Amino acid sequence: MESVPYVVFDLETTGLRPSISDDVVQIGAVRLEGGVETGNFDTLVNPGRPIPPVSTRYHGVTDAMVARAPGAAEAIATFRDFAAGAVLVAHNAAFDLTALAGAAERRGAPRLPNPAMCSMTLARWLDPREPDVSLDGLCGRAGLVIEHRHHALGDARATAVLWMSLLARAAARGSLNLPDLAFRSSMTERIVENARHF
C-alpha cells in the first residue's frame, strides 16, 4: 500500500455546506510516490461571490486574495492534472469530495475520476474507541506538528504524514492492499454516509 501513488489534498471553502451553496477558495495538495513527497499543488480559487467574514477568520482567505485567482473550473482542472493516476486522500474526505462535486455542479468544474480514501475513516477503524479523530487530535497524539493550520497546503502536508503512519498500522493488522483496506474499514460506505452532513 505504501508504494501506491497518493495525492493528499485539502480544501478551504466559503462555508460548511458545499452540497448546497458553499464554494472552494483554496486547494492544497502533495503527491506521494513510495511514501515520499514528490510534488505539491497550491492555489487560491475565486468563488465568484464574497467570502463570509466568519470563514475568513477560520482560514484567512479574503476577497482581495482571490480577486485575480482562477475560478473553480480552471483551478480544479489543473488539480485534476496534478492528481492524474493517483489515489486521492483527504481528512474527512466526505467534505472535500462534496465540495468538488458542488464545484462540478455549480461552477462547471471537471469531475475527478480518481478513487478516494479518507484518513479520518481509517483512524476510526484503527481506534474505534478514540473519540477525537480530528486532524489536530490525531497529529497531536502522533507527535506531528501541523505547520500553517487551516491553510490548505499545510493541512494537506500534515494529512500526508498522518496517512502514511495510518497505512503502516493497517498493514501491521494484515491489510496488504487498498481494496482489502477499503473493505475492512467500510471506507466507501462511511464516506457516502458522512457526505450527507455537508
Task: Describe this structure as you would to a colleague.
The protein has 198 residues and is of the alpha/beta class. It contains 9 helices and 5 strands. It has a 5-stranded mixed sheet with strand order 3-2-1-4-5, sandwiched between helices. Helix 4 packs across helix 9, helix 5 runs parallel beside helix 7 and helix 6 packs across helix 7. It is globular. The mean pLDDT is 94.
TL;DR of this structure?
This protein has 198 residues and is α/β, with parallel strands linked by helices.
Key attributes of the depicted protein:
198 residues; five-stranded mixed β-sheet
Low-confidence stretches: none
Helix percent band: 40-55%
Radius of gyration: 16 Å
Cα separation of the termini: 29 Å
Query: Widest sheet: strand order?
Result: 3-2-1-4-5
Order of H and E elements: EEEHHHEHEHHHHH
Beta fraction of the residues? 15-25%
Summarize the SSE layout with pairings:
Blueprint: E1 6-13, E2 24-33, E3 36-44, H1 53-59, H2 63-66, H3 72-82, E4 87-90, H4 93-107, E5 116-118, H5 119-126, H6 135-142, H7 152-172, H8 178-185, H9 187-195
Parallel strand pairs: 1-4, 4-5
Antiparallel strand pairs: 1-2, 2-3
Helix pairs in contact: 4-9, 5-7, 6-7
